[in-house]
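User: Can you predict the 3D structure of UTP--glucose-1-phosphate uridylyltransferase? Sequence below.
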Amino acid sequence: MSRITKAVFPVAGLGTRFLPATKAMPKELLPIIDKPIVQYAVEEAVAAGITELIFVTGRNKRAVGDHFDANLELEAQLTAKGKTELRDMVRNIVPEGVACIFVRQPEPLGLGHAVLCAAPAVGDNPFVVLLADDLMQGEELPTAALVRAFGKKPQTVLSVSEVAKEDASKYGILKPGAVDADGLIAVDGIVEKPAVDDAPSNLASFGRYVFTAEVFDVLRGLKPGAGGEIQLADAIDQMARAGKVAAITNPSRRYDCGDKFGYLTAIVDVALADADYRDRFLDLIRDRIAHSAP
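Assistant: Sure. Here are the predicted structure tokens for UTP--glucose-1-phosphate uridylyltransferase:
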């Protein structure tokens, strides 16, 4: 099995939970201070050895491509003003040796369909899928962990985390099997958004996956599922029941930036972790708390 060098980023969603901000701007470009959410996912993929970034876009998502494309006019202006540090930062958003490919999802037919749209660019190669809404922070990030797990056992691998029982109905919940010597959890199935009392475990699958190209054949054969869409979870469940899926525990902290409070939490935590902002930000928070007390 070949080394994983390709990553798929489904970025065609409308981002309705963030309207009106996302009426004209893709949700993936919402900033965490000064860096768009999707750039965090791209940096995570590149750090894991990915050299080909495949963005599955929709209409009105041209700005995503513009962000990762060269902007020679801006670079020239920054150079002329002596702002070489800013110029280099803009120039290196996509590092040398990393390529970007943009694929159009013509209709919003679900996450599974978005992944299937990437098939011509992926070919027969294994690949990772990163959902930019899930911002990961920590010393080790899930894409690197997934790539390493795939190297030990080349099959579909999910990144999972424990969730509170009352939150099980929000996620795809695993039917876990045995755990092997490398810490890989066998996945016997996955239940999408089960009722709390019907959840088979407290392990939820989040927005990081490794797939073999077999997933494309499974997706092509799927009938529309929930919401009349092609659901990626249905494809994973079908492969899991055939014994072809494993999972690893997510080694990082996840922020759901598709949720307003999750997005706000990410901004606060990133600011507190930044030496340039931490002290002033803490002072600001303390001041606001002091003046809001009854």
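The two ends are 63 Å apart (CA to CA). The first helix runs from residue 37 to 47.
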